[in-house]
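Module 6 notes. Inverse folding takes a fixed backbone as the condition and produces residue identities as the prediction. Think of it as a translation problem where the source language is geometry and the target language is the twenty amino acids. Below is one complete input and output pair. Work through it position by position during the lab.
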C-alpha cells in the first residue's frame, strides 16, 4: 500500500511540474517557472522518500530528503518574493 501512495505522490508532483513549466514556456510568466522548479525539487524529494522507505530501508536518507525539500521551498519562496508583476 505504501508503494502505491509514494508512487502516486511522485507522479502528482511530476504532473504539476510538467504543467507549470509548460505553461511558463507558453506565457513567459516567471512565477510559473519558479513554481515549476519547486515542483521538480518536490518530485526529487518524493523519489528520495520512495528510495528511503521502500528500496533501501537500511540506509538513512532523511538528510538528503530534507535538503531537497528545503531547496523546493526556497525556490518557491524566491519566486514569490522577487518576481513582481
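Target side of the pair, the amino acids:
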Amino acid at each position: 500500500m505504501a508503494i502505491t501512495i509514494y508512487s502516486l505522490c511522485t507522479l502528482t508532483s511530476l504532473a504539476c511540474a510538467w504543467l507549470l513549466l509548460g505553461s511558463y514556456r507558453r506565457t513567459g510568466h516567471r512565477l510559473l517557472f519558479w513554481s515549476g522548479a519547486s515542483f521538480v525539487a518536490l518530485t526529487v524529494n518524493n523519489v528520495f522518500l520512495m528510495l528511503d522507505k521502500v528500496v533501501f530501508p537500511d540506509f538513512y536518507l532523511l538528510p538528503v530528503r530534507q535538503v531537497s525539500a528545503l531547496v523546493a521551498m526556497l525556490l518557491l519562496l524566491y519566486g514569490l518574493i522577487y518576481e513582481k508583476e
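Reference fact for the lab report: The mean pLDDT is 93.
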